[in-house]
Protein backbone atom coordinates (compact mmCIF):
# COMPACT_ATOMS: atom_id res chain seq x y z
CA UNK A 1 0.00 0.00 0.00
CA UNK A 2 1.08 3.53 -0.71
CA UNK A 3 1.29 6.02 2.15
CA UNK A 4 2.98 9.22 0.96
CA UNK A 5 2.42 12.85 1.90
CA UNK A 6 4.22 15.84 0.38
CA UNK A 7 3.44 19.38 1.50
CA UNK A 8 4.81 22.89 1.26
CA UNK A 9 4.04 24.79 4.46
CA UNK A 10 4.98 27.82 6.53
CA UNK A 11 5.73 26.98 10.17
CA UNK A 12 3.23 28.24 12.70
CA UNK A 13 5.53 27.84 15.71
CA UNK A 14 9.15 27.11 16.53
CA UNK A 15 10.22 23.46 16.37
CA UNK A 16 10.09 21.55 19.67
CA UNK A 17 13.14 19.30 20.07
CA UNK A 18 13.29 16.69 22.83
CA UNK A 19 14.97 13.36 23.43
CA UNK A 20 13.53 9.96 24.31
CA UNK A 21 14.90 8.20 27.42
CA UNK A 22 17.32 6.27 25.18
CA UNK A 23 18.67 9.53 23.67
CA UNK A 24 16.83 9.50 20.31
CA UNK A 25 16.07 13.01 19.04
CA UNK A 26 12.44 13.80 18.14
CA UNK A 27 11.15 17.14 16.90
CA UNK A 28 7.53 18.21 16.47
CA UNK A 29 6.28 21.19 14.51
CA UNK A 30 3.17 22.43 12.79
CA UNK A 31 2.75 24.25 9.52
CA UNK A 32 0.02 25.62 7.34
CA UNK A 33 -0.65 26.21 3.69
CA UNK A 34 -3.29 28.33 2.01
CA UNK A 35 -5.26 27.87 -1.18
CA UNK A 36 -8.06 29.69 -2.95
CA UNK A 37 -11.25 28.06 -4.12
CA UNK A 38 -14.17 29.96 -5.66
CA UNK A 39 -12.71 33.27 -4.50
CA UNK A 40 -12.32 32.16 -0.88
CA UNK A 41 -9.06 31.45 0.89
CA UNK A 42 -8.67 28.42 3.11
CA UNK A 43 -5.84 27.53 5.51
CA UNK A 44 -5.07 23.94 6.46
CA UNK A 45 -2.79 23.05 9.40
CA UNK A 46 -0.58 19.96 9.55
CA UNK A 47 1.49 18.32 12.30
CA UNK A 48 4.93 16.86 11.57
CA UNK A 49 7.31 14.66 13.52
CA UNK A 50 11.02 14.32 12.69
CA UNK A 51 13.37 11.73 14.20
CA UNK A 52 17.12 11.24 14.76
CA UNK A 53 19.60 13.54 13.02
CA UNK A 54 16.85 15.05 10.85
CA UNK A 55 15.09 16.20 14.05
CA UNK A 56 18.24 17.97 15.23
CA UNK A 57 18.78 19.65 11.83
CA UNK A 58 15.18 20.90 11.71
CA UNK A 59 15.38 22.25 15.27
CA UNK A 60 18.68 23.99 14.57
CA UNK A 61 17.78 25.76 11.32
CA UNK A 62 14.02 26.39 11.34
CA UNK A 63 11.82 28.82 13.26
CA UNK A 64 8.28 30.13 13.21
CA UNK A 65 7.54 31.53 9.74
CA UNK A 66 10.08 29.34 7.88
CA UNK A 67 8.89 27.84 4.59
CA UNK A 68 9.61 24.16 4.02
CA UNK A 69 8.71 21.33 1.69
CA UNK A 70 8.22 18.06 3.59
CA UNK A 71 7.59 14.53 2.45
CA UNK A 72 6.88 11.50 4.57
CA UNK A 73 4.04 9.20 5.55
CA UNK A 74 0.82 9.72 7.47
CA UNK A 75 0.61 8.11 10.89
CA UNK A 76 -2.00 8.22 13.63
CA UNK A 77 -1.29 7.80 17.32
CA UNK A 78 -2.98 8.19 20.68
CA UNK A 79 -1.70 9.19 24.09
CA UNK A 80 -3.01 10.16 27.48
CA UNK A 81 -2.58 13.81 28.50
CA UNK A 82 -1.71 15.02 32.01
CA UNK A 83 -5.43 15.17 32.91
CA UNK A 84 -5.99 11.53 31.93
CA UNK A 85 -7.82 12.32 28.68
CA UNK A 86 -7.10 10.21 25.61
CA UNK A 87 -5.79 12.39 22.78
CA UNK A 88 -5.55 11.50 19.09
CA UNK A 89 -3.37 12.96 16.35
CA UNK A 90 -2.72 12.25 12.70
CA UNK A 91 0.67 13.60 11.66
CA UNK A 92 3.26 13.32 8.93
CA UNK A 93 6.29 11.27 9.91
CA UNK A 94 8.81 13.21 7.84
CA UNK A 95 11.71 11.62 6.00
CA UNK A 96 12.71 14.48 3.65
CA UNK A 97 12.67 18.24 4.11
CA UNK A 98 13.75 21.16 1.92
CA UNK A 99 14.29 24.57 3.50
CA UNK A 100 12.78 26.99 1.00
CA UNK A 101 14.00 30.28 2.45
CA UNK A 102 17.42 29.77 4.08
CA UNK A 103 19.60 32.81 4.70
CA UNK A 104 22.03 31.85 1.95
CA UNK A 105 19.29 32.10 -0.68
CA UNK A 106 19.86 28.50 -1.78
CA UNK A 107 17.46 25.62 -1.20
CA UNK A 108 18.82 23.25 1.45
CA UNK A 109 17.67 19.65 1.62
CA UNK A 110 17.93 17.15 4.46
CA UNK A 111 16.88 13.52 4.55
CA UNK A 112 16.26 10.96 7.26
CA UNK A 113 18.89 8.28 7.75
CA UNK A 114 18.00 6.61 4.45
CA UNK A 115 19.58 9.38 2.35
CA UNK A 116 22.00 12.32 2.30
CA UNK A 117 21.88 14.80 5.15
CA UNK A 118 22.02 18.58 4.64
CA UNK A 119 24.50 19.03 1.83
CA UNK A 120 26.27 15.65 1.86
CA UNK A 121 26.89 14.25 -1.62
CA UNK A 122 27.26 10.61 -2.45
CA UNK A 123 29.23 10.09 -5.69
CA UNK A 124 27.55 6.70 -6.19
CA UNK A 125 24.20 8.49 -6.60
CA UNK A 126 25.33 10.74 -9.48
CA UNK A 127 23.81 9.32 -12.70
CA UNK A 128 26.80 10.02 -14.97
Descriptive notes:
The longest helix has 10 residues. The radius of gyration is 16 Å and the shape is globular. It has one helix and seven strands, in the order ββββαβββ. The chain has one domain: Beta Barrel (OB fold (Dihydrolipoamide Acetyltransferase, E2P)).
Helix content: under 10%
Shape: globular
CATH superfamily: Nucleic acid-binding proteins
Strand order of the largest sheet: 1-3-4-6-5
Number of strands: 7
**Topology pattern, helix = H, strand = E:** EEEEHEEE
Name the CATH class. Mainly Beta
Number of continuous helical runs: 1
What separation lies between the terminal Cα atoms?
32 Å
Uncertain regions spanning at least 5 consecutive residues: 114-128
Overall pLDDT: 84
Look at the helices and sheets and give the structural class. mainly beta
Name its key features:
7 strands, 5-stranded mixed barrel, globular, disordered C terminus, 128 residues, 53% strand, OB fold (Dihydrolipoamide Acetyltransferase, E2P)
Give a nutshell description of this structure:
The protein has 128 residues and is mainly beta. It is 8% helix and 53% strand. The chain has one domain (5-30, 43-117): OB fold (Dihydrolipoamide Acetyltransferase, E2P), CATH 2.40.50.140.
Topology:
Layout: E1 5-11, E2 16-19, E3 25-37, E4 40-51, H1 52-61, E5 67-80, E6 86-99, E7 108-111
Parallel strand pairs: 4-6
Antiparallel strand pairs: 1-3, 1-5, 2-3, 3-4, 5-6, 6-7
Amino acid sequence: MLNVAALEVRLGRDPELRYTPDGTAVCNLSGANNFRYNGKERTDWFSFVFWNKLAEIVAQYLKKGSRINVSGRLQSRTWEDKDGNTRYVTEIRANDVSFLDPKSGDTVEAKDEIGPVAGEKDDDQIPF
